[in-house]
Amino acid sequence: MAAIDTDEDDFEVDAEDLDNTPVAESDSERLSLLVNDLHVTYRVFGAKKVGHGPAKKQTALQKFLSRGASQQGVREVKAVRGISFSARHGESIGIIGVNGSGKSTLLRAIAGLIPPASGSVYVAGDPALLGVNAVLMGDLSGERNIMIGGLALGLTQQQVKDRYQDVVDFAEIGEFVNLPMKSYSSGMGARLRFAISASAVPDILMIDEALSTGDAGFRAKSKARINEVRESAGTVFLVSHSLATVKSMCERVLWVHKGQLVMDGPADEVCKHYKKFVNETKKLAEERAAEK
Ligand SMILES: Nc1ncnc2c1ncn2[C@@H]1O[C@H](COP(=O)(O)OP(=O)(O)OP(=O)(O)O)[C@@H](O)[C@H]1O
Ligand SMILES: [Mg+2]
């Protein structure tokens, strides 16, 4: 796939144009995802008082009113700025980039959890199968979260019950399943989230960093699970800071920087360029520090 022109800053593509644009005929059947000039902007409300403490719940009306009140302090963060790519069934795609480059935001937008400022995301299959993390709640037990997550993935209650023990076993959390998720170590939380998202065979499986927190045994199981999804013609996205993990699990990699796609190509090639970039940036920073 060709690298995307990252200099382009076109905010004017609209969805209607795309509907009439046939995707390359021979490939259209195998496309699972089409991301077209996607822009995602966060609105950060200034440190102004919004009138609630962390433990206090607000009604929808209170939230609405307090949003209006803090409108002056709004700052926009353009987290994704014009990303386009397509993915096919059976593909496993790594997403790499430095901290804050927009990887998680891109995944969340693909999952439909945050609306794009402009551009579009077309998903073949059921978008409800995406992004289980958003619905899980730290105050609830692992057991309750397995149910909530399973339902969010489109499973029936009975299906979740049938798969419950498999999820607990896969996550290796044992008795902790009865405790609130917020009491889990980050590795345990990541394992449970992954086990829940793997309890259905989704059209698109998205993994954000989860694997880097697991031990070797868990990584091997995750890898097997990823292969299963791919064999059932799903698409896998894997965000990770470990280039070794990305290279071992993905044949294709997207490199995201400052919300734009710098490179899209074979894993080895993209990782090589990214590594060079990271090393050069590090060297520059060291030189600057030495000058001071
Ligand atoms: N909920 C949010 N509200 C406001 N800004 C956000 C929010 N989430 C992320 N951002 C900002 O959007 C940009 C992209 O963040 P994102 O989390 O997508 O990066 P990332 O590539 O996943 O980083 P990391 O490697 O650290 O996980 C950053 O500038 C970040 O500060
Ligand atoms: Mg992230």
Describe the structure in your own words.
By secondary structure, the protein is of the alpha/beta class. The protein has a domain at 12-20 and 30-43 and 75-127 and 204-214 and 241-292: Rossmann fold (3-Layer(aba) Sandwich). The chain is built from eleven helices and eight strands. A five-stranded mixed beta sheet has the order 5-6-3-7-8, with helices on both faces. Strands 2-1-4 form a three-stranded antiparallel beta sheet. Helix 5 packs across helix 6 (157-171), helix 5 packs parallel to helix 7 and helix 6 crosses helix 7. Mean pLDDT is 80; it is low at 1-28, 49-53 and 127-131. The structure holds adenosine-5'-triphosphate and magnesium ion. Adenosine-5'-triphosphate binds at residues 42, 44, 77, 79, 97, 99-105. This is Teichoic acid ABC transporter ATP-binding protein. Residues 59-283 form the ABC transporter domain. Residues 1-23 are annotated as: Disordered. Keywords: ATP-binding, Nucleotide-binding, Transport. Belongs to the ABC transporter superfamily.
CATH superfamily of the domain at 12-20 and 30-43 and 75-127 and 204-214 and 241-292: P-loop containing nucleotide triphosphate hydrolases
The CATH architecture of the domain at 12-20 and 30-43 and 75-127 and 204-214 and 241-292 can be given as 3-Layer(aba) Sandwich
CATH topology of the domain at 12-20 and 30-43 and 75-127 and 204-214 and 241-292: Rossmann fold
Mean pLDDT: 80
Q: Could you give the distance between the termini?
A: 43 Å
Write the element-wise H/E pattern from the N-terminal end onward. HHEHEEHEHHHEHHEHEEH
The value of Rg in angstroms is 20 Å
Q: List all distinct small molecules, including ions and cofactors, that are bound in this structure.
A: adenosine-5'-triphosphate, magnesium ion
State the share of residues found in helices, binned by percent: 40-55%
Query: How would you write the strand order of the largest sheet?
Result: 5-6-3-7-8
InterPro entries: AAA+_ATPase (IPR003593), ABC_transporter-like_ATP-bd (IPR003439), ABC_transpr_TagH-like (IPR015860), Bact_Polysacc_Export_ATP-bd (IPR050683), P-loop_NTPase (IPR027417)
Organism: Brachybacterium endophyticum
Pfam family, one: ABC_tran
Family: Belongs to the ABC transporter superfamily.
